[in-house]
Amino acid sequence: MDRDFILAREAQLVYSNSAASGFNPVGDSLEKWQGTLTYTTNRGRNMFTFEIFLPEYFPNVPPVATAIGFMDHPNIDNDGFVQLRILDNWRAEFHLYQVIIALKNLMSRVPPTPRGQTAKTARDVVSRITQAPPQQEPVQARSEAESTALRMELTAINQQLREKEEEIARLRARQVIHSEPSSTSRPHLSAVEELESEKIATSDLLAALEDRYASGEISIFEYSRLYKKYSKELYVLKKELEYLGR
Asked: Whole-prediction pTM value?
């Protein structure tokens, strides 16, 4: 199905559903939507902006929801990615307006707070009630420290794996460029060929990312982070090649 038709259909569904009001396209593109939500608490009135991006392979892959600016919320990670149940359990028949409604409902139940202010939620109350007695605090602290160390180690390992995957993709792309007749007689690639090999490698990484997400190998947060990274790199490479006339 044509992407322009898909985006136009999603826009029509958003505008026809009052529960999704407040979100509008960014600029002339229908693939990026932004909305500002306002909440009044005992700490005052706060406004928070969110952005929803529809990736190239939407609706076969879920949108990416991010928080614009700094805010604290249990469903928003340090990079601003918003975790929503509808995104974690995404199906191709879902639509943008449903993501907007899910986001608004979540933020209405547990409003975000400006970075540095601690939200007083039911989760905080339960945590205080069920915390370990004083004599067990050293054990609990040690357990939390061990868990943090393991998470950091796992993050480092995953980062190393990503770097190896990117390195392998680049090597394969260079082999493809070298195998072309115009390159067989030259030991080094030209500037344009270097960019072409980078574009091939990045495209392959994006395709592999889609497969890994579809098979459940990576989380929505990891998928969103890498998709944003590779898409930006691919866009820059295409612009550089256009500038060089390729």
From this structure: 0.53
